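DATA SHEET
Item: assembly model
Revision: 1
Owner: S.N.
Input lines:
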Amino acid sequence: MEISRDAYRAIEDIVGAENISDDPAFLDSYAFQWLAELVRPENSHYMPRPWAVVLPATTEEVQAIHRVCNKYGIKIKPISTGWYHWAAPMKDNEPTIQIDLRRMDKIISIDEKNMVAVVEPYVTCAQLQAEVMKLGLNINIIGAGCSTSIVASASTYFGAGPSSYYMGNNSDNLLGQEWVTPGGDVVLTGSLSSDCGWFCGEGPGPSLRGVTRGNMGSRGGLGTYTKCAIKLAPWHGAAVLEPQGPPPAYRLPIPENTRVYTIGVPSWDAFAETYLNIYDNEIGYIFHRQFNLAGADLAPALWLTYLRPDGTMNDVETASKDPEMQKLADEGRISFQIILQGRSVDEVKLQDKILDAIMAKTGAYKVGRFCEQDFAEFTHMYLQRLGHKHCNFIWVGGYMGSWMQAGIPDFVKNYSPVAIDGFYRDQKQSDGLVQCGGDALMGCGSSISGGGYFGFEQFVSYDPNDKASVQACVKHMYDAIDDCKANGIPLGKEYIYLMIGWPDEQIWNDFSKAPQTFVLHFQRKIKEHFDPRELGDRNYPWLPKGMGQPNFITQS
Amino acid sequence: MDKKNKLIAIVGAANVLDDPKTLEAWSQDESFVPARRPWFVVRPQNLEQVQALVQWANETRTPLVPVSSGAPHFHGDTVPSVPEAVIVDLSGMNKIIKIDRRNRMVYVEPGVTYAELAPALAAEGLRISTPLKPRPNKSVMASLLERNPTQIPRLNFSLPEPLRALGVVWGTGDVAFTGDAGSGPLSLEAQWQKNLAQIDPKGPNATDLMRLMTGAQGTMGIAAWASVRCELLPSARSYHFLPAEKLESLVDFCHQLERDRLGDEVFVLNAAQAARLFAASPDEIGSLQEALPQWMVVVGISGAAFYPEERVAVQEKDLQIMAQKFSLSLLPSLPGVTHAQVSQALYGCSQENYWKLAPKGGNQELFFLTTLDKAPGFVATVQAIAAELKFPINDLGVYIQPQHQGVSQHVEFNLPYNPKCEKEVAKVKAIFEKASAALLADGAYFSRPYGSWAAPVYNRDATAKHVLQVVKNILDPNNVMNPGKLCF
C-alpha cells in the first residue's frame, strides 16, 4: 500500500529529519529479528520491513506521531530494547512505522527512601541496577536479561526473572505508567493520575492498569508506554559490582552475608518437595534454574569449559566424554541455583541452616563442583546481573524456547518429563537440533511475586542459517503442541511464537475454542474504543464479535 | 411477573426481604453519605443465583448493590445512590471452598469472614495477613477487593495481596474467572483436576481482570469466589514497641525497617489510636492513653517452618541493632497493656462491639495513601484543622500502615463522636470535609474514593476518568452494578 509522502513529512516535522528514516538499509535492521525464520516464508530472517522508523524524544512527540498515523492510517509498532520476532511489524501488506524509543533513555528519578525509580523506555535493567545498587537497592531483572527495557517488562510484557521470587514480578512492581493510546491520548495510572507522584499503581477506584498490564501485556499492540515507575528491592551487597577473573566467565566475589549454591535432586518429585519447602521457609534472594539451558547432557562440559581462560567451544565435545564430566552431568541433571542473601550475617547463616534441613528432608544435595568457589562466583555474577544472554545462543546461534507453562510445583513436575522426552525424541529423529540431552529446561524460581508458581522453558537450540535445522525446530514446536494436547497440558510458548506467522482467521479459530473467551471480547471492545483505526497489531489479541462460546453458566 | 415474584423465583421466598425494618437498616451506614432505602434485599446462595440476578437486573434495568460484610458499614459504598435498588446480600454465600495447604491457598465465597477463616486456616497450620483487628463479620473477600490495608508489609507484593483470582459475574451477566483461572475451564473443580491452581493474579491474556474489580465498590460485577494466598502459621512470636514523642522521629527508622523487610506486623500508631486498639474495655481507653507514648512503631516478629525460635531471635537482634542506629528505644511491652491484649490486637478480630466505635458509638475514618516522608505533614494538616474546629485533639486517632513493602503508606485518621449528639456529628462532619479538601489539595492520594471523595478525585484527570468509564461501559453496559458510585 502506498502512503502519501505527506505522512512522512508530517512526522519529520515532529522529530526532525535526523530522527526519521525510510532508508531500506536501516529498515531491514528492524525487520531482522530473532525467530523470524521459524514463521516467515522461505525461513527468511526478516519480518516485514517497516515503512519508516522514527525516533521520538518525548511523550509529546510520541503522541503527535500517533495522531499523524491515525490521520494517514499507518500502523504503529513501538520498540524499546526488543526481544523476539514480534517486536517487528507483523504483516507485509500493512505499512507500519516502527517507533524506536532509544532516545527516551533517561532515569528520571530515584527515590531512595521510598524505593521508587521513574524511567523512560530505553533505560535498561543494567543501567538502573548499577545506579540503585549504590543506594543499597536492587531491581528485578527479567529472564531476558539486563539489557532489556524496564518499561517494557513492567508495562507491556512478561515481568519475571530469577529474583521475582524475592523482589516481585515487574507487573506487581509497576507503580504507575504513562500510556499513549493508539489514538494519541495520554493515560496516567495510579497515584500519578491524581497528580500525587509515582508511588502507587493502583486506583483511584478500579485500577486502570488492568486494561493493558495482564499476563503478557499488550506487547506493542495497543499504543506506546513512555514512562513508568518501578518498585525497588533491598540489596545488601557491594555498592558497585566488581567482577573478577578472565572474560567471558566473570566472577563476582561472594560476601559474608551471601551464599551461592547449585542444588541437585534425585527426581522431579523431589524437586517439587524441595521447591515447596523453600517456598514455605521463605529463604532465598535469587531462585532459578539456569545452567540446564545448555542441555543436561552437555551442561557441565560447556560451563566448565567456559570457565577456563583457554577453553573454546571446540573443547566441549571432548570434555563431555570425560567420565568425570558425565558423572557431574548426572549429579546436576535435575538441579537449580539459589542465592541466599541476609540483611545480616546471622540471618544468612540461619538461611543456610534452613536450607540444610530442607535438603536433609527432601533428599536434595549440593552439586559439589558447581558449589566450588570459582563456579559459585561465576553463578553469582551470572544471576545477580543476568548479563550473559549471549549464552542463550551459544551452541549454534539460535534457540527457541518451548513449553514454559507456569503453575504449581506439582503441575511443573508432571509436564517436565513430557517436555524432556519429547525433546529427546525429536533430537534423535533429526540432527537439525543440537544433541544436548532432552532436558534443556530452565526458568525462574517464581514467575509471580513471592513464589509458589513457576514454569520451565525448553531451550531448543538450532542453527538459524541452516534451513534443515530451522525446519527441525519448527517440527519440534508442532510436536510440543501435540505432546501438550495428548497429555492434557495447556499449550506453551511455542504456540505463541508460531501464531505470529498465522493468518488472522487461523488465530481466531483457535481463540474461539478457548474455554473462556470473555477477555478476548473485552479486548476487542477496548481496541474498538482506543484503537478504532486498528493501528496496533494483534500482539494485543482479540476475537471478532460472535465467535466463541459465551461465558454463561446455566442455572442448575 | 412483578419484581418481587421474579426475585423469589431466583433466590426463593425466604431470601427476598422487603419489610420496612430491614429496608431501613440497609438504607444508611456509619458514614455521612445520604440515606436511601432499597426496594428489596435478596440473599443469593450460589453463583448461578447471582448470575440470574444480574441478568434480571439487566433486563429490568434494576440497580444492584452487592454487600458481603455484616454491619456496621462505614464508607457509603453499601448505601444505594439511586432509587429502586436491590441489595444483594452475599453473607449467605459463606463456604470456605477449599484449603490447599500444599500450595498455601484458600478459596472462599464472599460471605466468609475473618472470624470464620482464621480458625479454619489455623487448623491447617496457615494464616493470612489481615487488616488491623477487623470486625468479626468483615468479609475477607470484600476487604481484599477494596484494598483494605493489611498488617504485614513484607508480604504485600502488591496492594491487592493476598488476593489472587476471582470467579466473577460481570455486569454483563457473563461469568469469567480472573488471573490464571481465566485461561482454564469455567469450573474450579475441572481446573483442580488438571493440577491448575488459581495463584497467578495477572491476566487472563493482556488484561488484568482482577485489578478492574479491586477498589470498584461493586460497580463492575459480583465475585462469587476468591483464591487467597496464605502464610504458615507462626509457631514462635514476639512483638516490640518503639516509642517517640514526635512522628518525625520514627520516619527514618521505619524507612529502614520496611526496606529490610524486618518483622511481620509493622505499623505506627499515636496514643489515642493505640489506646483504643489495645484497651480491654472502653472504660480503660482514657487512662491507657495517658500512660502510652505519644507515638509508637509496633513490630510483630514471628517464625514458622524450620527453626522458628531462631528466626525470631535473629530478627530481634537485627531489630535491636537498627533501633540503636536510629537512637530509639525498643520496648518489649507497653505500660498497662497485657500480652493477651497485644495478641488480640495483632492477630485477632475485634469484639462484636467494634473497637473503633467503642469509645463513643460513632467514628469517622479519613484515609488515603502517601509516602512515609510526607505522612508527618499530612498529620499536621489534620491536627490543625481539628484544633481549629475545636475537636479535642487528644481524641484524634492516627494509624499509619506501610503497604507494598514500604513504598506506600495507608494513613488513617479516626474521629470518634457521639452519634446522638448533633453538635458532635456536625463538628466531625465539618472536620471531615475540610480536612479531605485540604489533604486532596496537598497531594494525598485517595486511592479508594468513597462517597464525597470521588468527584474531586476523578476531576483531577479527565482522561483517566474517561478510560474508566469506557471499561465500566464494557463490563456493565446498563450500569446496573451499584450506580452512582465512583465516576459511574
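QC remark: The domain at 5-100 of chain A is CATH 3.30.43.10 (Uridine Diphospho-n-acetylenolpyruvylglucosamine Reductase; domain 2).
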